[in-house]
Amino acid sequence: QWYQRRVRGDVATQYFADRDIFCAGRVTQEDLNRTVKACGGTILTTVNDIREADMGQCSLFEEVQIGNDRYNLFTGCPKAKTCTLILRGGADQFIDETERSLHDAIMIVRRALKNDSIVAGGGAIEMELSKELRNYAKTIHGKEQLLITAYAKALEIIPRQLCDNAGFDAITILNKLRQKHAQGAKWMGMDISSEDIADNFEACVWEPSIVKRNALTAACDACCTILSIDETVKNPNSNYKAPSAMPGMR
Q1: HEC secondary structure over 17-69
Q2: Which residues are CB-neighbours of 125 under 8 A, at least 6 positions away?
Q3: For 164-173, what is each residue's pLDDT tens digit?
Q4: pTM
């Protein structure tokens, strides 16, 4: 195959086609770099003095029609460490939502590989933190007890929202989770498959600990910022309406 950034001419295209060489023009620099990283080879500025070391390799190259577009697929690249995912859907909204979900899943896995500390997901860690804070609040006699109890209650919003998104009865699920966590089952969380609760650590529903720490830190910082606002200043001219015409004018 032969790729170039400039427009390919008809003579050059026919020259390569006669020799069973695929030729493509108007290829972006990003695609060229990705192809070189996967297949090897070198990006050349001239066709003179081409050496074997400048050529890339792949097991199979094919041009496939997918939907209304044609794609050049490279299979069996010796240096490839990634793959390409083609998302299709009936509307742009579905594709955008799928892309966001896929991106979130990939980033979670990437973060989990970089940080080996993990916790159970599905609302398990939030329910365990809520239980521990409620128990700790009982040991405090001052007004701080109300703040800690409110923080513990706010943590239950995560499993409650998960239940609402899945269409489950949030009250029933949360009551079961409170019971299990009170009995010491700290990794019990919501199970989408069985519409019940399960040990999410055994079910491999994991989340990196650093993600949870960052989320709690960001939430606390946002709350402190809002509470630190003691006064708002309103511009009195914002409600001023200019007259449509001067008095006495028509």
Answers
A1: HHCCCCEECCCCHHHHHHHHHHHCCCCCCCCCCCCHHHCCCCCEEEEEEECCE
A2: 119, 189, 207, 212
A3: 988 899 999 9
A4: 0.60
CA angle 34, 96, 73 (to 5 degrees): 30
**Distance from C-alpha of 134 to C-alpha of 142, rounded to nearest angstrom:** 14
* Pair of tokens at residue 248: 């006495």
DSSP per-residue letters across 95-140 = HHHHHHHHHHHHHHHHHHHH---EEETTTHHHHHHHHHHHHHHTT-
* Residue 200 DSSP label: T
Tokens 């006495």 found at: 248
Residue listed under structure tokens 């599905």: 122
For the record, the structure tokens of 75 come out as 């299979």
Structure confidence by residue, pLDDT tens digits, 202-229: 998 888 888 899 999 999 999 888 888 8
Cβ distance 58 to 75 under 8 Å?
Answer: yes
Q: How far is CA 88 from CA 72, 99, 102, 222, in A?
A: 17, 10, 13, 37
Tokens at 183, concatenated = 């009995």
CA distances from 25 to 20, 72, 73 (A): 16, 13, 16
The residues near 123 (Cβ < 8 Å, ≥ 6 apart) are: 158, 159, 162, 177, 189, 190
